[in-house]
Structure formats: C-alpha cells, structure tokens
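Why show two proteins at once? Because comparison is the fastest way to build intuition. When a single record is shown, students tend to memorize it. When two are placed side by side, the eye starts asking what differs. So, the first record is below.
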Amino acid sequence: MKKILALMGAVLLLSVSARAVEVSAPSALLMEKETGTVLFAKNEHEKLEPASVTKIMTLLLTMEAIDGGTLRYEDTVTASPHACSMGGSQIWLKEGERLTVDEMLKAVCVVSANDCAVALAEHLAGSEESFVERMNRRAAELGMNDTTFKNACGLPVEGHVTSAYDIALMSRELMLRHPDIRRYTTVWMDTLRDGASSLVNTNKLVRFYDGTTGLKTGSTNAAGYCISATAERDGMELIAVILKGKTSPERFADAQTLLNYGFASYALKTVIPDEPLPPVPVRLGTQATVQPVLGEENQLLLEKAKTGELGQSVTLEPSVQAPVAVGDRLGTLTVTFGEEVLAELPLLAGEEVPRITFRQMLPRVLRIACLVE
C-alpha cells in the first residue's frame, strides 16, 4: 500500500510540475541570466511582432553609449517633429522640447514612450533610420538570427519581427552588462516635468511580483500582448519572454508561471575549490612554478535537488613549458553529484611566466657545475 501511495504521489508531483510550466501564449521562453541557460521553451524561434518589447534594443544601445562614455545621463535631448509624431504610448513631447537622457530613459522604461525612444535614437545616430541600422547590426552580433528591426519603438511595420529566443538574448545582454538600467525598470510610479506628468509602469509585475527587476511590455492588435519579464531571487536572475498573449492578464500570468517554475526548480551556485590548488611546475621558465586559478565562468545552474553535497576533483598538467600566458589552461576542476558529472571547469594560469633567456640561464648552469665539482 505504501508503494502504491508513493507512486501516486510521484505521478501527482509530475503532473503538478507539468502544469506549472504550461503557458497559454503561443511562444515563450525562460532563460537564466548569468549562464544563458534556457530552462523552458515553446516555439521560441517563431518570428513574431514584438511591439514595444523592441525598445529593449533601443535601451541596450543607449546604455552602451552611456557606459562607453559617448553619452551622459545629464545630456539634453531635443524632440524632433518626427519623434513627436509617433503616437501610441507616449508622453506627448512637443516639438523642440528638451529633456535629459535620464528623463527620456525613465519615460521609455516606465510608460513605454514611443516619442522618447525615437528622440533617443535620433540623438544617438542622427536619424531613426541610421539607428535602426545599428539595432540590426547589434542584433546580428548577439546571434539574434530571427530578428529584423524596422523602427526604434515597435510600432507596427511589415517585416518588423523577432522571436522569444532573440528577445531573451538582448534582455540578457542589457541586464547582465548594464545593471544601472534597473534604476528605471524597477520604478513603479514617478513624475516628469516637475511633477506635471505622472508615470505608472506598464509592467505590473514591478508592483506585484517579488524580486522583479524589469523589463519591458508591449502590445498592438497584431502583436498581441508581449513581455520580457526579469526577476531576481537568492542571487539568480531569470528572464521570461511571452509573445502574442491573448490578454494583458494572461501575459502577466504566463510570465509569473515561468518565473515561479524557475525559482522553484533551479539555483545558481558559485564554485570555489575545496582546497588550495597546488602550483604547476614550469620548464625553462623565469620561475619554477605557475599558480592555477579557477576561471571567471565559475557559476553553475543546478536543479535544486542537486545543490546539496557536491564533490570536486582536480586534474593538473604534470608540468608546462614556458612561456606561459595568463589564461593558459593548466587543468580541470570536475564537479560531481554522486556519480554524475555536473561540470568540468577550466583551471587557468593566473600569472605570466616568460621563457628564460640564455643570459638568465647562465648563472643556473654555473651553480649546477660548481655543485657537481
């Protein structure tokens, strides 16, 4: 009887787990930010209209300019007639109105302002057309093979398409490389123009889902209801993408379903060697040994059931020949759970060891000769 009950319990658990990752949207994806691991996918490469989720690329290029030093938050952006003509979600910029980059970013992130997105694009590239060229170039660099951008804000244009997978890629790049964007994407309510313009975030998860860090909603009649939703708990940040949802509530419900599944099922663990790593002998080097270190990619995404007692084993080269460059591979740290190998992480040279010259070698040879005599 106990065995039957246990089996019934296991079947029930599997059923609940399966239901936990069912989404109503026709296309969806869940990705872990740090490793880029896809945890759930449904028609993830189907080319669909993204509506204002497009603005993630506009935000990415803007933040790259800021972090690269070619744009400042306090710089002033002037609204052009073209930017003011966008329609849709906007803050009703007036021709010639001047706002700072900081204010423009707030308007784009919080209320999905099309006019501000285009104004930023024109400020950065001279025209929206030139900016769109940059968007598509950056998309190609990120491996967004399902994407073609036609504008900077996501208003409906024939051929303006992307996929859930590609949206996750650009969302990851933005959240991973430019954490300051959270200054805007986590705002629930704010104002502009000295309090005259009220802003309420189109992403309701900011208000109602614990750990939300962003990111961007979008909706048109053709695109349906879309979102790239990011949230962080216990040091792990997830990206949930929903495309072509039937209603706004279903869009948010689907995103929460994916995020809940990810946080309940996985954890991010930083690997640290259990014991100090021994140095590796160096032949014909200016020093006798080189110290191995664990590479920067030392975080593992694990099923929570496998985050208990992990085993480690270290394999190092018996020796290496100079010259040794920083980052040269010296061995492997293998992480296991029971008999299962979870990861093989590279151990790298943490320092440079040049090859010894004849002039440097001569004193060593003379010392050895004296000892032999």
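Second record. Ask yourself what differs from the first in the token line.
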Amino acid sequence: MITQIIAHRGSKGVRPENTIVAFNKAIDEGADGIETDVHLSKDGKLVIIHDETVNRTTDGEGRIFDKTLAEIKKLDAGAYFSEKYVNERIPTLQEVVDLLIQRKYHGIFNLELKTDKIKYPGIEQKVYEVLKGEDFPFHLVYSSFNPKSISVLHQLQPEVEAASLFKINTKAARRFSRRRIIQEWHPSIAWVRSHRFFLPHVQLRPWTVNSEDDIKYCFKKNFKGIITDYPTRALKIRKKMQGE
C-alpha cells in the first residue's frame, strides 16, 4: 500500500501555516492531501487557523471567537514566518474550498474542527452547509479531538470519511470504530512510537511526522497516511521506499 502524504496546515514547514500560499505550495509539491483547521468568528464565520487565538501567527491578539471576520481579515498572517509573506491573510473555509476547486485538486481535504477547547455552538452545521451536496474534486475527510463534533458530523454526512484525533486517550476512537462512525485513527506519532509493539488493527494517519526516522518508520509500517509539515521531504523518501 502506498502511504498517503498529507500536508499539515498546508506546507507548514516552508510557508506560513493555514494560508493560501501554504495550500498552493502543498498542491504544487504534489501532496496527496491537505490538512487544516477551522474555528468560528464572533459573527459566525468559518475561519481557517490552528490556534484559538491569533497571537502566535498574526500581528494581533485575542481569541478568534471574540473577533468579527472583518477584524480577522485585517490581521497579517504571514509576516511572523518571513517578510516575503507580509500581508497574507487568514482565509475563510469557503476561500480554501474555492481554491481547491479552482486548482482542480483531487487529493484529500482533511478538515479538523477545533472544538476541543472552545465548543463553538453550531459549527458542525455551518461546516456542513459549506460542504454538503456539491460535486467537489477533492476527497473530504473530517477529524476532531472532540468526539461530539465527530458524532454530529456523522449524523449530518454519514457518507463522509471521518477520523478521531488523539494524543493519548483512545477511548472515543475505539468506540467510534466499533460503531463504524470513523474509518481511521489520527494519533500523535509519539503515541504510535510508544505502542509500536501492539498497534491496533486500524488504519492510521499519524501526526506530525517530520523527522526522516519517523517518516521511514511509517512507510515501513505501510500506514494509510502521514500528516507532515514537509511533504516534499516525505515524497522523496516514499519514492525510494515505496516506489511512488
């Protein structure tokens, strides 16, 4: 089996994460998939950013949930990474979907709902409204650390592939696997390494797989996929190990 290479927050290692330039780079590099994160703004808009606050990756401060989309769009989301990317903006979910359609991207679009710290009432329904019913070129996968979000999304779109994210606790992942609500586990690579002698018989896409040793380990194990900040590095290693 050829192990899928999914670009974590776009090509996060070489571009400002979760921006249009990061997603374009991942597509250009030939990544099999793109992973990203969605939050809800104060005025109920779906925005693409990893943290609950804008502090780390923009020139602003404060929680996403306390800012309107107009306020969020004023923030510089590229300068923290490099002066080359000054004035990159935080995209909306719709803008990312539009990009993937424009690029005719046939890979995986792994959307993580960031509801493990802030619950964002109604976010699952809003995501569904954007992603329901259209003939998208990409293959949609939902994931979350929050079991409730996975359950709600499964009720809304039972045909869509889903995965449980976790660092340590596998309780929800095991329960959802038995009920066939999810198809994969997305564990941390640290968890995978610590359980290497008794890994469960489920499809795994570990995160965040960046070192050459970890990438090679996952390819040797023929995992379904890896989520990495450096898709180009992983693609080169995969060609040597798996021939593609």
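One difference worth noting in the second protein: The radius of gyration is 17 Å.
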